[in-house]
UniProtKB/TrEMBL annotation:
It holds the Pfam family Alpha-amylase. CDD domains: AmyAc_OligoGlu_TS. This is Alpha amylase catalytic region. It comes from Kribbella flavida (strain DSM 17836 / JCM 10339 / NBRC 14399). InterPro entries: GH, GH13_cat_dom, O16G_dom_2. Residues 14-413 form the Glycosyl hydrolase family 13 catalytic domain. Belongs to the glycosyl hydrolase 13 family. GO terms for molecular function: alpha-amylase activity. GO terms for biological process: oligosaccharide catabolic process.
Length: 539
């Protein structure tokens, strides 16, 4: 296969640096920790890693509050460590994507500090959204993502816009200096050898500068991304993406191959998302509709169909994702019957054994679908969401900003258990406590414990990724649903000669006669496919 289309079929592993691996033993993950685990990732069989923000940051939103886009957070390491990581990863055949956070920065960013100091009407304020309010009220009724309004008033009476936390002022993307600054940031990292960027809230940078209010829903300003929303999916975002694509394309004809973008945009329906991956824009975009699906054959099939149809219409590959650092881990989600399992951590009863079976089956489904796939760190170990973190350790801003009503996203960010039978499970030396406490009982889930067990979750992922690399049917390409299966079963064929069958129904079904089982998510006795089980077949 040509190296230049690697991103169309790549399996990318998401590293959340704070929680991945701790080389210096201070209880916080770091760049040298990632370096130490590169052989693990190469052995796992992924093609690339995406590293969530590693920049200097007060970490008020886990690093999505960037105070310097051209450096490494001293808690995580140095630029020299990052350079070494890039070189070592490339030597192992792993590509590196990093996170670009272009909608907002941290209130500690020098440009924002300069804007506060320079005062009303200054050119420094023009790079952000500073406005006067009316009668003590903010300029618009826009809601912030983590609760409360999106405008924060400062001492001189002006308000600044923050679509996320108050510590994350929104950039003014109508300003040439902001545009040029991000051009330079892209080049800075491309020149250091980065293979691409995941674009944070890729649908939000452009704003309707006439600042209209949003409609009310049940008395509250809506957070819905309706068509025409003044701060989401504005036409201006596409101008920005086209500009970035041109920059990435300047690097395309180098031995390293193309530099790529993946959009994070929680936009439905897929036709809307497909606009972001037209050939002169971003290369790919996460599909979150599958992530939001219940464990239901009909619903999944429908979502897979309209996703692939709308992406293929613009020539883009599908990009599947089951979990990330913002969502409840799918082992836990799939262990629940409730369709609203994405919300309400801690209140819905969870069957973790059921969740694990389904997570195993889901891994085979995800990795057999056409296109690329993302794996969130720890999902290869079958980690569940940690739902009983003590309130005093909760760190996600949603906890604070929601007035302690939403527990937030910490439960999927608990440091990875690598080895040993008790905390910190090889995450650091134990000298510095892990920044979030790990639960007791994770001993059997460590990478070390699973490595030697042929039936482990880790070894299922490894086997699937090995077959995916070897089997020419997998990755980019087309799929065809097989209709000769009972309701509740998903079955599709990839050419040549590869079939994936997933039983999401209530009873065991017959496996197709004469098929050779390449891989099964759980044992398949007597030609039967049990419930919540998936198989890969040579058809
Ligand atoms: O998330 C963007 C985003 O829209 C999320 O708030 C999403 O809607 C929510 O988490 C769904 O559960 C990105 C990052 O992934 C997230 O970690 C950051 O907090 C956010 O941007 C702000 O940078």
């Amino acid at each position: 296969r040509p190296a230049d289309d690697w991103w169309r079929r790549a399996v990318v592993y998401q590293v959340y640096p704070r929680s991945f691996a701790d080389a210096d033993g201070d209880g916080t993950g770091d760049v040298n920790g990632i370096r130490a685990k590169l052989p693990y990732l190469a052995d796992l069989g992924v093609d690339a890693i995406w590293i969530s923000p590693w920049y200097p940051s007060p970490l008020l939103d886990g690093g999505y509050d960037v105070s310097d886009y051209r450096d490494i957070n001293p808690d995580f390491g140095t630029l020299a460590d990052a350079d070494a990581l890039i070189a070592e990863a490339h030597a192992l055949g792993l590509r590196i994507l990093i996170d670009l956070v272009p909608n907002h920065c941290s209130w500690e960013h020098p440009w924002f500090k300069a804007a506060l100091a320079a005062g009303k009407g200054s050119p420094e304020r023009e790079r952000f959204w500073f406005r006067d309010g009316t009668n003590g009220q903010p300029p618009t009724n826009w809601p912030a993502a983590f609760g409360g309004g999106a405008w924060q008033q400062i001492e001189d009476g002006q308000w600044y816009l923050h679509m996320f936390d108050i510590s994350q002022p929104d950039w003014n993307w109508d300003h040439p200096e902001v545009i040029e600054e991000f051009d330079a940031i892209l080049r800075f990292w491309f020149d250091r050898g980065i293979d691409g960027f995941r674009i944070d809230v890729a649908d939000s940078m452009a704003k309707d500068a006439s600042l209209p209010d949003v409609p009310l829903h049940e008395g509250q300003p809506t957070r819905e991304k309706y068509v025409g929303n003044p701060f989401y999916d504005q036409p201006g975002v596409h101008t920005i993406h086209q500009r970035w694509r041109a920059i990435a394309d300047e690097y395309a004809d180098t031995p390293q191959g193309p530099r790529v973008f993946v959009a994070e945009a929680w936009l439905s329906p897929a036709e809307r998302l497909a606009q972001y991956v037209r050939s002169n824009e971003l290369h790919s975009a996460f599909n979150f509709d599958v992530l939001r699906c219940a464990w239901d054959a009909k619903e999944l099939r429908q979502v897979i169909d309209y996703t692939t149809d709308s992406l293929w219409a613009v020539g883009a590959p599908a990009t599947w994702v089951l979990s990330n650092h913002d969502t409840i881990r799918h082992r836990t989600r799939y262990g629940r019957d409730q369709r609203d399992a994405l919300e309400g951590a801690g209140v819905v009863p969870t069957d973790l054994e059921l969740g694990l079976r389904r997570a195993r089956a889901a891994a085979l489904l995800e990795l057999a679908l056409p296109g690329g796939a993302y794996i969130y760190q720890g999902d290869e170990l079958g980690l569940p969401e940690v739902e009983d973190l003590p309130e005093e350790v909760l760190d996600d801003p949603t906890w604070e900003r929601s007035g302690h009503t939403v527990r937030g996203r910490d439960g999927c960010r608990v440091p990875i258990p690598w080895s040993g039978s008790e905390p910190p499970y090889g995450f650091g030396s134990g000298e510095g406590q892990p920044w979030l406490p790990q639960p007791a009982g994770w001993g059997p889930l460590t990478a070390e414990a699973q490595a030697g067990d042929p039936g482990s979750h880790l070894n299922l992922y490894k086997a699937a990724l090995r077959i995916r690399r070897e089997h020419e049917a997998l990755g980019e390409g087309r799929m065809r649903w097989d209709e000769d299966v009972p309701a509740g079963v998903l079955s599709f064929t990839r050419d040549p000669g590869f079939r994936c069958v997933v039983n999401l129904g209530d009873e065991a079904v017959d496996l197709p006669a004469g098929a050779e089982v390449l891989l099964a998510s759980d044992p398949v006795p007597d030609g039967l496919l049990p419930t919540d089980t998936a198989v890969w077949l040579r058809a």
